[in-house]
Amino acid sequence: MTISHVFDTYAKTAQGRTLHFNVVLDEEDQQKALIYAKDWLASIGLEDAVVTPENCYFYHSLEAPDALRADIDRQGYAIYMMEGCPR
Description:
Blueprint: E1 3-12, E2 18-25, H1 30-43, E3 56-63, H2 66-75, E4 78-81
Antiparallel strand pairs: 1-2, 1-3, 2-4
């Protein structure tokens, strides 16, 4: 059983939209969580979105569900989308 760490994250787009999502990774490392958040935002065409250390903070640890675990194993992190995120 691998324990993963969840970083509660908010990003603001240039158009003023707020996205709320979790970055899930196997290390409790805020810098990596920020990098992964920015990488994910760029991958969905929102490279102009702003995410700061104050808006990407450690929330809790858990055993990641299978779908998230597969993403972590493949790319080093997973994103759990919540409010304002594209579906």
